[in-house]
Amino acid sequence: MSTSMLSTVFANTLATTVSRLPLPAIWTAGSAQQRTLILGVILAILSNLLFGVLYAYSSFLAPLSGTQVFIWRMLAMWAALVGYLLISGRLGFHIDKLKALGTVKQWAWLLLPTPIFLSQFWLFMWAPVNGQGVQTAMGYFLFPLMMVIFGCVFFGEKLSRLQWLAVGFAALGVGSEIIRTQSVSWATLWVCGTYPLYYILRRLQGIGAVTGLLVDLTIFAPFALVYLFLFAPSSSLSVVSGSGFFILMLAGLGVMSVLAMKTNVDASQMLPVNVYGMMSYLEPALLFILAITVLGNPFESAMIYSYGLIWLGIVFLIAHGVRQLRRAHQQS
Fold first, then answer.
1. Is the pLDDT of residue 6 over 50?
2. What pLDDT, in 10s, does the model give residues 118-169?
């Protein structure tokens, strides 16, 4: 049986199972558009919960360092992604898209965002266990606000009054934190300053999220193997190879990483942009809570003022999204 036939059988089985479940009336009686919206919200919540679990994952893999967990995660994620694409019959589709790139210049343009992607994934695994969990979570809070600014600069998008207020309060919050500490965390700046560039470059390239992810992971996989066998402490390999627990944990790390990315991409395609944008704040909120509670990263009471200004900016950005949704609903 081919992989495409397996994918069809799986989809039909899933549809039959869902139809037999005691689902709410809004699902069974609602329109296809309503069901798509509900499913998109469920997938968005699931992806944010998975990203939250992944944020705290490093702390359960001691004595591996954050960098070593990052290396193992990239390899496990690559294996899980290739396995998923093989089973679903979609690997050939993504390879064909890459074959269409015929020049060195096109490939160089494609690989330009890859270092940003890798650095962000490294920071995501390194920061929670090195006292930078709160600062990294704040970078993710600022990320949507920076996307608004980058959209204005690179694509000529006009800001509404609420968006200007959101950006203004976020700037006040960051400025207040700089004055208080006489510095600003490099982790915060790296997340909110470079991650938007990754998405903007991929958008300009017209490369889908899964294709871009496949390229990023495939390019990095050989370097990860070289690091593990030549540069990583010998204890890293011995700890993993000699423990069924670590093997299962790393396999779970790869599967959850791909599942988190897949559900996030699916949610972005099912939901209106404003709804998806508002749902994206679940992740940094969860990361922030986990950093303080589970991971024990420091949070000083003096940070409430500056962080409060940033959160106030987020409230205005969410209000802008709600207003846009109401206008769209009235026009439909």
1. no
2. 999 899 888 888 888 888 888 888 887 787 787 788 777 777 888 888 888 8
Neighbours of 190 (CB within 10 A): 18
User: Are the C-beta atoms of residues 73 and 253 closer than 8 Å to each other?
Assistant: yes
Give 3-state DSSP helix, strand, coil % of the chain, rounded to 5: 85, 0, 15
- The greatest distance separating any two alpha carbons of the chain, rounded to the nearest whole angstrom, comes to 64
Residue 261 and residue 237: Cα distance in Å, rounded? 27
Q: Which residues of 289-323 are buried (b: 16+ CB within 10 A; e: fewer)?
A: ebbeeebebeeeeebeebbebbbbbbebbbbbbee
Of 277, 321, 266, 210, nearest to 50 (Cα)? 266
- Our measurement of the distance from residue 240's CA atom to the centroid of its chain's CA atoms, rounded to an integer in Å, reads 26
Total-model pTM: 0.73
Please give the span between the terminal C-alpha atoms of the chain, in angstroms, as a whole number.
Answer: 45
Q: Give whole-number Cα distances, 294 to 52, 83, 252, 287, 290, in Å.
A: 11, 32, 20, 10, 5
Question: Measured on CA atoms in the order 49, 54, 58, 60, is the torsion positive or negative?
Answer: positive
- pLDDT bin (cut points 50, 70, 90) of residue 27 is very low
Token reading at 317: 């950005």
Burial of residue 26 (CB within 10 Å: 0-12, 13-18, 19+) is exposed
